[in-house]
Amino acid sequence: TGPESRCFDMTDVKKEIIKLDTGLNLEISCNPKTMKSVATLLMAVNRMKKTPTHSSWELRGDELCRVIMDSLVDETVVKTVADATTGQRSIKFVRVQSEECTLSDTHKKDIICTSEDFKLQAVTLKGGYGDRKVNFKLVKYISCGAGQTFVLSIKNANNHKLYLSCVMNSDNAELHLEKCSEDDISSSNDMDRFLFDKKLTGISLTRFESVKYPGWFISTSESENQPLELCQTDSAQRVTYFKVSSKNPLIG
């Protein structure tokens, strides 16, 4: 047993039902693996105890779920803008969560970044070269109009963030790396090119579809040492399914 198990034993807690409020209980069904998980759980319980009113528990289904999630999530409003000439408002995106992760396709190729021209490529890494994997920051946003969407970014050699974007060139969507501020993400001024829908398939496979250009997915080639690109669903010899391996989950 490690030091964490000695300082905090969850054995007696895992079957406990915690009374939060009238009509709502929290049942802990598994043991957190780390003290960070324990702290996150306790923070969530405290928020659920304090925030919703009694009338909130009279809600059912989606409305009750929304109230509960509103009490758990620290929201950061990214941006809402209005066009002075048309009066149209862009969709408001709210940042709710982020995590650090690596990506590998279903052919077990990992995503790396070339040092010469700073391009993302898919390569089968041999033992001892795991440090070449690119660390992605995956940031989740929600909105009333677009549901859950994600922004992917990496850091270059100067520690500056570069964001994956979808840009249409003639009839072909291209995957670019661009500088951007997360505070600028909205549906106006072409900023939705940075947004991707994260589509879960099966147990642990994920696809990333462009929000701006639906039907275009982040993909790798079946061949080695080829760039990360965008393709359409029926594209031959392209791989659009990825395993997302979380390295450092973050909340808020």
Automatic annotation (TrEMBL):
GO biological process per UniProt: cellular response to lipopolysaccharide; cytokine-mediated signaling pathway; fever generation; immune response; macrophage chemotaxis; neutrophil activation; positive regulation of cell division; positive regulation of gene expression
Superkingdom of source: Eukaryota
Protein's recorded name: Interleukin-1
Record GO cellular component, one term: cytosol
InterPro entries linked: IL-1_CS, IL-1_fam, IL1/FGF
Subcellular location: Cytoplasm, Cytosol; Lysosome; Secreted, Extracellular exosome
Example of a GO MF term: interleukin-1 receptor binding
Location (main, coarse): cytoplasm
Ranges in a coiled coil: none
Record family assignment: Belongs to the IL-1 family.
Swiss-Prot/TrEMBL keywords: Cytokine, Cytoplasm, Inflammatory response, Lysosome, Mitogen, Pyrogen, Secreted
